[in-house]
Amino acid sequence: MQQESMIYEQAANLVIEYPNNHTVKFETPKDEIVSLLNDFKEKFAPEVLKSLSDDELLGYIFLTADGNNDSLCYHLEFNPKLKKTFGSISGGSSFKFGLFQRQEDGKWTTGAPKTPQVLSETEALQFGKTIRDNLVNACEMIQSRTLDSVEAYEKLDNDLNELMGKFATYAWVQKYFHMIFPDQFIGWYVTDWLKHILFGFGINPSEKYYGMNGQLTLIKKMTSYMSPHFQDICYAMFGEIRHFYRLGSSDESEHYAEKWKEKGIVAIGWKETGDLLNYIKNGTLDKDKVADALSTHYYQSDKKTASRKAGEIKSFYETSSSSVITVMDGSQLIAFVDGLSPYFYDANENMAHQKSGVWHSSFDESDKLPEDEGYLTTCYEVKKPENLLFLYKKYYWSKGTEDSSTTAEEYIPIRFNTGYQTSFERNRILFGAPGTGKSYTINKEAKELIGENNEDDYERVTFHPDYAYAHFVGTYKPVPSKDSQGNDTITYAYVPGPFMRVYVKALKNSRNANVRPFLLIIEEINRANVAAVFGDIFQLLDRGDDEVSEYPIQASEDIKAYLALELGGKPEDYTKIRIPDNMFIWATMNSADQGVFPMDTAFKRRWDFTYLGIDDSDEKIRGKYVYLADDKSQKVEWNKLRKAINHFLAKEKINEDKQLGPYFISRSIVVPSEGDEIDREKFIRVFKNKVIMYLFEDAARQKRAKLFEGCFQNSTRYSEICREFDVKGIGIFNHDIQLETEPEESQWMPPNEEN
């Protein structure tokens, strides 16, 4: 389940990020979508259908002979706004609604086009009520379910089929469910569309319609998009439905792939049949005539084989611009060819039946289909899900790239153990109370580690609750590119995260004689679920005496391909990876923050923790003062005030990690560039908005009255405390804090304005 959720999350991230980098045309504005849904529900909601009288039921729901354009079925198929926004169910005949009134004679009819069944008015009404009742009962079933998993949708599929029979699979019923429950369903009503989008995301489709619909709905729910806009983005990403065909490229005498690639074509043999355009009947290729020709020229005593091969020829002939030819030599994958032209015949070639197309060399030498399929067939449509998953990934995520076997740089071995020496720890976490200077310290020491002019040798990232493995390590994302004809298109590429970027820099440098350190800084490391963010990278943090990962991990196919691209060689050169000794990972954390994630012991023991005490770095703020109170009469030293507040918090048994560090107020404010006087306006603004707010809402939440004793009756209201601070300064606090701050009597006079 966790792996499944991660796959759906990755797909959702692709959808979320795609409009940030590409122009997506949303067919219908959001407010119009909402309006259309509300209008439809007002008119056709289940409770409305349930309340229909016998006299109005048939005309209200079904297509009638008088051309009523206000029935449920009419709106579902013909209403142009609903069609544009919520998907089309056009095509076929009126039999698809289960019941309709014939225009030629006004008879109510059911059945199928070849076996129509005419019903009496009474029979039609009874049948119509059955359909209505099933529809209403199905809606009640859907409403009662918690549809939060593929399993839940698949169970719904079973139950709907048991309740409604064949009607559960009708496109108009599916569209009705989508419009009544827009958050629970997606607006594709053809399984080929559902499969196309799911394969595009790298997800194996469920075997059930509502299971597939649920898979995409689960992805949609992870985005902020309404179903029509979600579908607009998916269409922009993956385009029309794709059908993948395996095409053999050799016969007993010759391998043709290179020749085809040079000419920009794909082709099949059986030249002696002549031009296939001679076998066209009613606009389609007549398979029987082709079989007869094959029997004459090739398979004189084997009509069965002739018929089978005629089917292969027909498959090749009927491939279209939405088809993708996968050129193969036996089991070896060679290239994709798309953008296919209409068929043409070249009598000068053995492979005479031809189509032009655009070649994309997206495979490695070792690539094979995961499952055996179609190897003994010249032209064969790929159907097995595992094979389609593989081909979709290669097509959409590697389209336009050159074959790694021909473009990969020579592999130069990398060194994990470079012998780099330093006193700094490799895996390090700085922690302490807020304002103790964790970020300042780590920045200062980062410069000591990597040098002053090597900014490219480190990266900084801040963790947050929604941060994930895909952000930290990397994932495939849609990126703009150009096709072979120079047109804008969308491809998928592996986009590395900060860990992988620093990792690659360190590995590249490991090959040099002059080895340098490379640093990844993670701010607020415990504000994300580190177990999920690090994933299997977690194991690499366990370093041996040589500061190299003691236990390597198996690299994913995506990471292997990316490392091969960046470092040269082939993906299999990077099967197992380690963190080298010239890569450093430093982090900061504050355990006092609200909403942080706990770290387990196994994670913690892989780090060296450095604690910054509450007063460890206060030397720069000693003697720095500010004038407070309404008359500017209080000369208050920030360090004394801070320590006095901390003393109060300590006496109230509030942990040190909740107390105020020297730089809880920004260093740029409490350490003046000149002299010892702190800018009064800046200090007061930040003190109210940051210090008082922090004490009021967090550190001293249960001790407000005691801490802000000087405010008397106003100690429970933040706004009143701030207002009194403007007048009283430190007088808002209790007597002990005021006393420990020790403003000297001689300093309580307003400063000389002339000075």
Question: What does this entry show, briefly?
Answer:
This protein is an alpha+beta fold.
Features:
Rossmann fold; disordered C terminus; 4 domains; about 750 residues; 29 helices; flat; about 40% helix; single chain; five-stranded parallel beta sheet; alpha+beta; five-stranded mixed beta sheet
What does this structure look like?
The chain is α+β, with helices and mostly antiparallel strands and 755 residues long. The chain folds into 4 domains: 2-238, no CATH class; 243-403, no CATH class; 427-611, 3-Layer(aba) Sandwich (Rossmann fold), CATH 3.40.50; 619-748, no CATH class. It has 29 helices and 24 strands. The chain has a 5-stranded mixed beta sheet with strand order 12-9-8-4-13. A 5-stranded parallel beta sheet has the order 15-18-21-14-22, sandwiched between helices. Strands 1-2-3 form a 3-stranded antiparallel beta sheet. Helix 1 crosses helix 11, helix 8 (150-164) crosses helix 11 (209-221) and helix 14 (287-297) packs across helix 15 (303-318). The chain is flat. Residues 399-409 and 745-755 have low confidence and may be disordered.
